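Internal tracking record. Fields below are filled automatically when a chain is submitted to the structure queue. Please do not edit lines marked as system-generated. If the sequence contains nonstandard residues, flag them in the REMARKS field before resubmitting.
Queue: standard
Priority: normal
Entity type: single polypeptide chain
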Amino acid sequence: MKPLMWGLLGNHRTRNKLLEHLITGDETWSHLSTPETKRDSVTRKHPSSPVTKKFKVQQSATKVMATVFWDSRGMTLLDSLPKGESVNADLYCETLDRLRHAVRR
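SYSTEM-GENERATED OUTPUT FOLLOWS
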């Protein structure tokens, strides 16, 4: 019975080591800037001071594709698609090269 327990413990340690080295990633489209809400822009003023004009602000029409890679310790790489580019094999390989350099650091 004892050798079986030692074998299971060893396997458990091996699995944990494996999980420490796993890296996962995701891609998402995001606006370059998001406007603050009126509540976010409120500042305390003296009652006699003039009221500031608040303009209606819209989200940026420009979007960027962000690629994020992370492991058990946190974010490993945050990469963005250059403006006017589209994802192809060469660009994806460059991203993976940057990921490899980030992991080695």
